[in-house]
Amino acid sequence: MERGYYWKRIVRSVISILLVISIVFVLVYSLVPRERIFNSDDTLVKLGGKPDEKLQYQMRTWQRLGYIDYENMSSYCSTLYEAGTDEIAACNLSGAKEEKDFVEKYESLGYDITYLPLSKSPIASKDRPIAKRIVEWFIQLIHIDSPNYVDEEMFPDVERKIYFGKTPTGGLAIKCSGCEYKYLAYTDTSFPFIHQNWISLYLGQSYPTFDSLQVLNVISDSQGQEKRVDTVFEDGHVETSSYKMTACKWKNSLDKLDKNKFQDNYANCTTIKKDPSMMGISFIMGIIALVLAYGIGLPVGLLMARSKSGLADKLGMLYIIFIISVPSLAYIYFFKYLGSTFFHLPTAFPTYGVSDIRSWVLPCVSLALPSIASLMLWTRRYMVDQMNSDYVKFAKAKGLNQSEIYKKHIFRNAIIPIAQGIPSSLAGCITGAIITESVYSVGGMGKMLPDAINSYNNAMIIALAFLYTTISIIGVFLGDIIITWIDPRISLANKEEGR
Amino acid sequence: MSEKNDLFTFAEFDETKSEHIAAPRYSYWKSVWRTFVSNKFIVAVCIMMLVVVAFAMIQPLFSHYDPMYAPNINDPSSKFQSPSSEHIFGTDNIGRDLFDAVWAGAKNSLIIGFGCTIINMVLGIIVGAIWGFSKKVDVWMIEVYNVVSNVPFLLLAMILSYVLGSGFKSLIFIMCVTNWIYVAYFIRTQVMIIRDREYNLASKCLGTPTWTIITKNILPYLISVIMTYVSREIPVNISYEVFLSYLGLGLGQQNASLGRMISSYTSYMNAYPHLFWIPVSLLAVISISLYLVGQALADASDPRTHR
Fold first, then answer.
1. Do A333 and B262 touch (CB under 8 A)?
2. Who's near B36: CB < 8 A, 6+ residues apart?
3. Which of A37, A53, A198, B43 meets the CB 3.0–4.6 Å disulfide criterion with A184?
4. pTM value?
5. What residue spans define the domains of chain A?
């Protein structure tokens, strides 16, 4: 019964994610004018005086981002003739006889033909249907590395196999030849000890901000200055470098420096940087705030319930009303002001950087304030509700002492709905806090969505929508599972009683 | 003997009197009013709130404040003036009068807060009442709710304001497009709790139409619950406007907005504190008083608190 419920729920969650992403896709790609993505593109400004190049650059960018299918004469010519011949040079000139064939061919395929403003050379473009793009996005989403990754034509003699081996630092590894990554899975001494590159999420290419990077790398790679340490290379030599040897990817063309350092083509290594990733910073900050919130909110809520209508209760309510009714922006600034004038804490995160504990104090406190208020409110509410129930009166009549009733009877029951919220808030830490992070200029996840929106980074918006939705769905699901653990009376299946 | 008898007279026997129910006259709205005014502190807050709201609605009609109009922008002496008799709240970084600006902003915040709350509540209550009453509707609506509630609101709000552009209409649309479903879900749960109570079953057996049961038997019971929800909803909506304007996605440059004022004046917090603290305080006064009055009204409208 329960298992059936879980499966149904998982299927429903997946459908929800599909629907949400589809809606966001339609909103972002059909309602926002596509010219806007160039608003902050310097390349386009540089091409201002060259209308031909400008149009072609726009077309190529739209093609790269999946808006359109695009063809021009030079790509058409290279399908007709061998590279480097006279024919291809003649074909590329404007007014060539092949232009007529080009127009005919792509018109029959349903493309729109336009002519470049100066050279009058034809280009063909066709809008890609949104439904097709959504399907493709989900197909590309989960990327599994395989030994067929390396181009067969360019590298015919690369061995293609998966085998067991060791990492340069001596850990166990599943290695691959012919895959994108050399180390598909490996162990090392850093948390969580077993790592993998085998299966990865592909959430699209970032543009125009963080150009030429994958969206996922933007939010999950370390930031800041390079961290140069003694690194053991493949052939055993040690060199000061910031490369992460276990995250090296295949590189098609090696330069001289690469050849000195690496024995094979796996030379495209990620560099390790000093600061945690955007996700990492948001997560650390969120966890600290969460611990603060539960550490303060729960006990204060309990105290308020015990001294109902007393002084502690009234003071607590005052705080709760303040937090609920004053816009968060206003009280975050208020606490920022208090912290900077009376405790001389930095008002901007980058002033002292990640490694200094003072940078963390104000953002974490700001983040915890609203959670403390809501925890206080709900803990008090649930406790008061339980205090008036019959079983508590019965326990009192039996002669149990007050603290025993609180601890063993009331608290155990009141904690259930509060425990349900823990996974959600834990998972929510990853998505960051939008206001807090922008007020304190923290380099975390929270500012990514407004930044992406303001810079028209559509791929980033879709990716963040996906992450936010998935995380919140998983959080709620885990919360429901946790309450069935704590309280065996609760059954998720058959929740709605029929009448 | 006769003197004593004079004290008493025989009462006439009246048959209709036996049909009379001897209960004190109870008027619901009068009791609500009596309970509400019995709390002097809340009455004071309520009067203050009414004054502030009325002033925010009327003052901009006379000041004609326009955020795009800055006649003193090239006059350095008119910038950053401290509060004085000429400019009660001083002037801002481009020489505009702050007094006019904050009231124009407060008016917009109030319109957004009340407007969105009214739309959400009306839609939510109507849909929620039907949803809670009909099992057929429930099967579908619960699925719609599952999808909608999984979309983080901020994400949706930001994407929609990105897509629709900034401005009054789009902001109200954004804050209503999905939020009514949370009201509806809340009402649905409440309706489900009381729809199967005995008095409703009896009413049904006697042949009362469903619509009458919903409007006459169930909704009045919900007034205090709805009021509690409303009193939270108005500050929350004002807060969202502030938040979206802070991110540059809310009302847009052409409308005065307390949110944008706060965000753009934060850099002057130390040098010209009045620029920052006046909009923040006004916002706080408006939201807190609305919340307190709403909570008091909710308590007063619960018949169980009536004596």
1. yes
2. B42, B43, B296, B297, B300
3. A198
4. 0.80
5. 36-133, 142-201+228-271, 278-446
